[in-house]
Amino acid sequence: MWETLFKMDKIEDNALKDITVKGVPLLVSRIDGKIYVTDLYCTHEQTSLSEGFIEGCSVVCSAHFASFNLKDGKVISGPEGETGTIKDLKSYNTKIENGMIMADI
Ligand code: FES
User: Fold this and answer.
1) Is the pTM of this model over 0.90?
2) What is the CA radius of gyration of the chain?
3) What is the pLDDT of residues 29-65, one digit of tens each?
4) Average pLDDT score over residue span 97-101
5) Is 2-104 a domain of CATH 2.102.10.10?
6) Pocket test for ligand 1, best of 42, 43, 62, 82 (most atoms within 8 A of CB)
7) Residue of 11, 40, 51, 63 with fewest CB within 10 Å of its CB?
């Protein structure tokens, strides 16, 4: 179901923002003008990825440095560089309508 998140101009380019919509904690990223939405919490030990940092089109968790592709939520590398130990993030379809970011939650 499509839900309205916030105005596009409320997030700068190459930035991360968290929001909870309908009880679902989400990570919204804006990378080179495009919006992506995934689950907010790292699948390792539930650290908020809004505290992480952006590397290209990925987010790196601030706790143990797992990284996830912001486009599709897939694990790029696990905690401390391990592989195959954590799950992907759920990724949500997005669209912009009248300057508002919407996600299919
Ligand atoms: S909580 Fe994110 S890598 Fe450990």
Assistant:
1) yes
2) 13
3) 999 999 999 999 999 999 999 999 999 999 999 999 9
4) 97
5) yes
6) 42
7) 51
